[in-house]
Specification:
Porin, about 5% helix, about 260 residues, 8-stranded antiparallel β-barrel, 1 helix
Length: about 260
């Protein structure tokens, strides 16, 4: 019986003695091994055990936090650009010309004009007109008028299809016709004097390239009076013409405010 107790006691004591004899705790790191001085390079001052220096890390610009809001600076509105374009017109012209002793004579013919339009309120226009009557007083004499005028054109009102304009033109006119002489007969002659015209026009846009224009002018010219002396007179001229657009300017009505 005593022998059994000794064997049991020895089995209980043996594991405790084995754990007490372990010199290294399981959580203690293993020390690094160092090479002996005999294994180093023989070159003095060179330490081969020093690890290489790490590469420099690039410095990136700091990003602003997402919650910071920068308010944009309010810029003044940008004005749209303007560029000059041209339109050509040609049409039928009727001039009510004053002739001494016969009242007035209707002259018919052709009118051609060239206008430079920059899209602003003021543009320029060159107008050439030639009208004639083949037989005046039934005497086989003709009457005609040729005028060349240039001046500013003012935009009064316009939209996508209909536009209205006013103009003041100045230049010269050559008028040929007959007039009564002192002996009771008729004499033929011509005068070439400065002339001017003022009036307005309405223009309807038929397509992006073509339009229809009606122009009414008060045309001031010169011709002989009953005494045979040149005198100024006011005539009425009406022109119906087809307009051809060589481009489309930026209109004031199409301006938009662009804020950055």
């Amino acid at each position: 019986m005593r022998t059994v107790w000794k064997i049991a006691f020895s089995l209980l004591i043996l594991p405790v003695s084995v754990m007490a004899q372990d010199p290294t705790p399981p959580t203690q790191p293993t020390p690094l091994l160092q090479s002996s001085p005999s294994t180093n390079d023989s070159t003095p001052g060179l330490d081969t055990t020093t690890p290489p220096s790490p590469e420099p890390t690039p410095i990136l610009p700091a990003q602003p936090p997402a919650f910071i809001y920068f308010r944009p600076i309010k810029q003044p509105p940008i004005a749209p650009g303007h560029f000059t374009v041209f339109n050509l017109s040609a049409g039928y012209s009727v001039t009510n010309l004053a002739i001494p002793s016969s009242g007035r004579v209707a002259l018919t013919g052709m009118d051609v004009s060239v206008a430079a339009d920059s899209g602003r309120r003021i543009s320029a226009k060159l107008d050439l007109s030639y009208t004639r009557a083949p037989n005046v007083f039934n005497g086989g004499h003709r009457a005609d008028a040729f005028s060349y005028l240039f001046g500013p054109v003012f935009s009064v009102w316009n939209n996508n299809s209909l536009s209205t304009y006013a103009h003041v033109l100045a230049g010269g006119a050559r008028v040929t016709g007959t007039f009564p002489n002192a002996s009771g007969g008729l004499s033929a002659g011509h005068v070439h004097y400065p002339a001017w015209a003022f009036g307005g026009s309405a223009e309807y846009r038929l397509s992006p390239a073509f339009g229809f224009r009606v122009t009414i002018d008060c045309l001031h010219t010169h011709f002989f009076n009953s005494a045979g002396a040149p005198r100024g007179q006011n005539d009425i001229r009406v022109v119906n013409s087809i307009v051809y657009y060589l481009g489309e300017p930026v209109r004031p009505r199409d301006r938009r405010r662009l804020l950055l």
